[in-house]
Amino acid sequence: MANFAPTSSPLSGSTRTAVLSTIQTASSELIQRYMAYLNYTPQSSEEEVPASPTPVNRKSKRQRLAQAPKNTETLKITSRTTVKEVEHRLTLPSLWPIPKESTAIVLDLSGQSAPLNAEGKPLTVDAWLRQEDQDSWKTCTTGNRSKEGIPVPLLGGTLCRRVLQKCNGIVACSELDPALLEGYERWEMDLEKCQSLFEAQEIQRQLEPSSAKAVVAKQGSCPKPGCPGSATMVKFTLFSGQNIDLEGMECFVGKRCTQVFHPTTGLKQKNCSAQPHNHPPFPALKPNAEAKEAAAQCFLAAGGVTAKPSSVDTGPTTLALLGQPLSGKFPAFRDKRKLRDFVQSQRLEEAPLGLEWLGIINAAEEDGRLPANEHDSNSLEAFRLIWDGFFRAVESTTRHSLQFKVFHKNGNLCAIICDAEAAQAQALGEYFMKINRPTVSGIEEALPERLLLYAFKSCLFHFNQ
């Protein structure tokens, strides 16, 4: 073995002090033994110094990267990232295409306002992207530790935050036929290659409820003594808290399946490590910002806290706003559970304590803290105009006036059901005073409130409140 001097490395102050203290207290014999261990032989200045085992001409990785030949066809994004193409976009797609060349996408959302999160704060750009994207991503960010950010030359040296994302892939049935996805690569949103999967899923949906066993199960009654119910189709699950009976499992064991699910469904998640994606795109099952905003408008138009999911989806106010049902314009709300959850979340925002007595007291206290110009402006004068305008509009449209059975001989209208609003009822009583003819109706009342007893009813829901 050749003798050489070990290469030196910088030492910290505390380490250097400890080494010098050890050398000063050590004996000469111990030092000689340590020198022999290192195979170190003192050499005079006249002798030729042997070559270091580390090649002198070998450069560090940073030096090699700095002196690497420049590719004039690439554009620099960061100090270590280059691309061949740059694409500009003004809107967020629901599914991002996978280009075959390294591409930087410059997204300009300056003309749009970011949607708000549950706390009422604007979403970050990366959270906004994930909300609009129908794929599922596992995200790794630098968080708040990177205060300065990374300069991006493509954006004029603007400091940016780096976010790394990995596709979570799909959750597939354990009996999925691998031939349906074999060799599939999702380039530029090419859906022709996964058409066989879509067709197989459609066939499976048609065969399941029409099979002989499914028909017999639906028509038969429950075999448990005393159970009056009938069998229904439910989603199959492999989890059972009881002993599993293997009888009848020939229906699905060894059979090929076509079901694939979004990775946010179920307990298992699979990562898509392929580049590009090797799984088919998902349908629009996740409501984006536009869908949520439209649903919120339909919720308020349908009555706010009293609105039902069905009225939010297909109610007349929704048809007037969107021109079609909510689920027709935004397929994500075809999932009835998503629609119910959204309506429930809106109700909690409007009335955190519900619609019972505690909720009414809380709403009254909140109204009392508002400025005077924002208080409930239901006044007697306002409802006078409303009732007069309503009855005139009916008469001008139908060429017939609304006639009450109690006030007119030929009237068919028994009563009007209104909310439990005092000003509304008082204004209606004044209208009854105008149309009441004691010689015809036989009712002689001098107070509008007394006439309400003949043709006014309060909504039972509001009355209970």
Automatic annotation (TrEMBL):
Region annotation (Disordered) ranges: 43-69
Its protein name is Uncharacterized protein
